Amino acid sequence: MPSKKSPLNCFRQTSKKYTSPKRKSPPFPANQCCGEIMTGNDGNRWTAVMNAKNICQWKPDGTGNSAKPKQEKKCPKGKVISPSGRCVKEKKPSATKPKPVKKCPKGKVRSPSGRCVKEKKPSATKPKPVKKCPKGKVRSPSGRCVKEKKPSATTTAQDKPPVKKTKITQANIVARLEESFINDPEYHWSKRKVKTVTHFKKNQHKFELLTPIKDWNNGDIVIYNPYSPGVNSGFISGTKIIPEGGEDMTAVPEEMTKYTDDMLAKYKNLIDEEIIGETIYLSNKDVTLKKFLKGSLLKKINKISSKRPIFSLDINKLIDDTKIYLQVSFPPQSGGWSKNYRITTVVGEVDVNKQGIMGKGKIENEKELIGLIERSIGGKL
Description:
By secondary structure, this protein is α+β, with helices and mostly antiparallel strands. It is built from 8 helices and 20 strands.
């Protein structure tokens, strides 16, 4: 029962919300009885407490008093208990009903504030259809129609997107000239003529096929002559077979550097078999360069755009299987040489253990190295 000081609107409620068996708190509106202590439906004492949002909520009184409330005074028919405890005439429900909300006129709807406002047509919220750009123009990211840029007629091979590099897969010997054909005229013929996969297929009866042609990968090798002196072979590059050779070993041609940034890892298995070596050309982003160059210099090297490799590794296991040498290629300063001719000089070395793991590389003269690189690219780093 509310106290004598209860607000005038702190009435016992009879609706299902307040009298439900599941409700433990008192059957009174907490906001109308803020600060009051009431007996809840569970028989305990409850207090209407204001929270941080200035809203009153029923909270257990904390006294632990579970005594049953005193029997409330019953009023005669047509009367109810007032906040002061007296029986007063019950107000008819119709008097407390909210005023009926008037309907808005046609073409208007009620806003959240209760006002009648003009109804927005659904079509107004739909996105406007995007108009097609005139012929010869394309839509830019900003939505404007701009003139379409046509490929320049002077576009060079360097302007074309680079070949997508594949994951590092070790190169393999996929075919070799039959033993009976390995003589001077035959393997020289193969080096000169067998320069495409199509031409190989026409002459494959002369070769021992170690891997089916459909399974060949970029960087795989076709051996024409494995014997020293006069070792030569061909490297698979798309539909081409690029010839390469040397007195005792086969050098990796520059064209292979577009397929991986770790040339040493790709051909390590073949180096171990002493099939390949001598020279391995590196891209300017090859991970092997981290063994030799400082971070500040390496960062500049990685940004160099060059048609051909600047760096290469010199590997010759027949002479010394404990060393790998870093080389730089650059054009000669004197005249009389062809435009594409390059001189190669050693600029550093690294030790290799029996497991083929490289140590920390040593650069002989960094100042000289920078000079040779700038000479190779024809400009400053």
